[in-house]
Design goal:
Elements lengths: L1 H13 L2 H23 L6 H9 L1 H9 L4 H5 L3 H5 L5 H22 L2 H9 L4 H26 L5 H24 L4 H23 L2 H21 L7 H9 L1 H9 L5 H26 L2
Helix pairs in contact: 1-7, 2-3, 2-4, 2-7, 3-9, 4-9, 4-10, 7-9, 7-15, 9-10, 9-14, 9-15, 10-13, 11-12, 14-15
Membrane topology: Multi-pass membrane protein
Subcellular location: Cell membrane
Protein name: ABC transporter permease
Length: 287
């Protein structure tokens, strides 16, 4: 895995992608620091991090678009996959390399709250919690971008799809408020989710009987709950979308709210996408 990390870091800093990412991250940090702290005479740096995070829409695709798509385009993926290094090590190594670049940029931005600390009283705990959320949010989006990159050999397509996916995470709370909250709509939504879950189970196990059994079991549970207490399904769509909103978890950190559940959620989120990336590559590898 170490060799993969070194290879990816070398690529980031022998091409423009790493420099572009770091330059824009630091430039945006400086601009919002001047506007949000210096000009506004405010010691709240968490607002700067929230503003910068919006630009993950563009920064994360830059960081992740080439991770796997470039290998596929140059036909070096087969050499990589037939090497002694496992697919898991390759995937985790690429993820760690991209995460290191993100962390390098984040650490450099520490200069701005340090400046605030020298000239004003600041809430150190709020800044620490905000930075933790900023990094976890970035890692979650990196895992999504890496997964998308593993699906195509075209870097531009990978970047566009990653942009669209990240954008969806940003507007998910708005979608939750706009979608219907009635019981029947919620039932259809939950049934669709159960169906998707059944497909994932089948794709992972290749056992149709197990997938059908699990799907039917969840549908039966859903039906029983509906007949016992139908009101349980009111507003389920909004609740589900808000629960899946990684951006919603990020805003908790920016308010200084440190919940173990939010940390576990982010860790589970990017581990799940790393698993999906590994699983997808393994399936294509043996076709």
């Amino acid at each position: 895995m170490t060799s993969i990390i070194k290879k990816e870091l070398r690529t980031y800093f022998t091409t423009m992608s790493g420099y572009i990412f770091l330059t824009f991250l630091l430039l945006l940090s400086a601009v919002y620091f001047v506007i949000g702290n210096i000009s506004a005479q405010s010691a709240d740096f968490s607002g700067v991090l929230t503003s910068i995070a919006v630009y993950y829409l563009f920064l994360i695709p830059i960081l992740t678009m080439r991770l796997f798509s470039e290998e596929a385009k140059l036909k070096t993926d087969q050499l990589l996959y037939t090497s002694p290094v496992s697919i898991t090590d390759i995937t985790v190594g690429k993820f760690i390399a991209a995460s290191i670049v993100l962390c390098i940029g984040t650490v450099i931005t520490f200069i701005f709250p340090i400046i605030l600390l020298l000239f004003s009283d600041i809430n150190l705990m709020l800044i620490v919690v905000s930075y933790l959320g900023f990094i976890l949010f970035g890692l979650s989006l990196i895992s999504v971008g890496m997964f998308v990159s593993s699906l195509t050999e075209n870097q531009i397509i990978a970047a566009v799809i990653t942009f669209a996916t990240v954008f969806l995470f940003f507007i998910m709370d708005g979608l939750a408020r706009a979608l219907p909250a009635d019981i029947m709509s919620s039932l259809f939504f939950i049934t669709a989710i159960i169906g998707i879950f059944g497909i994932i189970v089948y794709d992972s196990t290749k056992n149709k009987a197990v997938a059908v059994f699990i799907t039917l079991l969840f549908i039966v549970v859903e039906a029983v709950l509906y007949f016992i207490k139908p009101t349980l399904f009111e507003g389920t769509i909004a609740y589900a979308l808000q629960w899946f909103s990684v951006f919603n978890r990020f805003t908790n950190f920016q308010r200084g709210v440190l919940n173990v559940s939010d940390i576990i959620y982010n860790l589970t989120f990017f581990i799940a996408f790393i698993y999906l990336t590994i699983n997808g590559i393994e399936k294509r590898r043996w076709r």
